[in-house]
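Exercise (ungraded).
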Amino acid sequence: MLDVCLLGSGGMMPLPYRYLTALMTRFNGSSLLIDCGEGTQVAVKEKGWSFKPIDVICFTHYHGDHISGLPGLLLTMGNADRSEPLTLIGPKGLERVVTALRVIAPELPFPIVYREIEGAEQTFEMNGYRLKAFRVNHNVLCYGYTLEIDRAGKFDAQKAKERNIPLKYWSRLQSGEEVKAEEGVFTPDMVLGPPRKGLKLTYTTDTRPTDSIRKNVPGSDLFICEGMYGEKDKAAKAKEYKHMTFYEAAELAKEAQVKEMWLTHYSPSLTRPEQYMGEVRKIFPQAKAGKDGMSAELKFED
Ligand SMILES: [Zn+2]
Ligand SMILES: [Zn+2]
């Protein structure tokens, strides 16, 4: 099961009733954070989730509303005597930007591992999931992310018997381990059926609609996408500032046939996103206006 929480839903600046856009996931004892603007740690506290299992923090880009909360969060983690390494992932310039922010958080009791994204897309395998960064189109270098969890096929005892695989190796093979034994080398595919549908989450913010989004979003159980403007007359503004309208986000969700889409990263001037959702759902019925603290448990089918 993958726990997903949209910690905040605001763009540009935090408001009294709206934190900045950030996403947190929990899977198998390890937590991931994407973006960390001013106030993100308050949003985590408000949700009641813990900082301790956060072992990866990813950044879409280095505008203040997506990274200015980092030094404070690092200090909080340090004050909790964290000693485990923390991995940071982000566009080119990651170490330079974080080092500059760390002038106010210089001494930390844990190491930071920097993984700078190279090229148009890059995949990172860790903690039992696959994280893929893909380039999007904003006024600075910016990436979207997909998080995927694979699911192996069902155990097929008949298949194992036909291949004369000794019973004592079945459970290891079933859990995905390759077994080198006196009788030979056995691989999991010898006892498992075809892979089953896993889980997929996509997060894109601060971008125009792009082919990279169209390519990476299909198959998502949940697609969290920026919607800076709900007003139809702001389409030109969205283009100019490299953001999206609700309707552009809905078109992407519709095209990709995702299961559900949440909008986020609202302009501070947009006080009631819900009022536009009727129009948005005409394009894509499974659309929701994201709200601070909105969460979902993504589960394997059946
Ligand atoms: Zn932003
Ligand atoms: Zn931005």
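Further reading is listed at the end of the chapter. For now, observe: The chain is about 25% helix and 30% strand. The mean pLDDT is 96.
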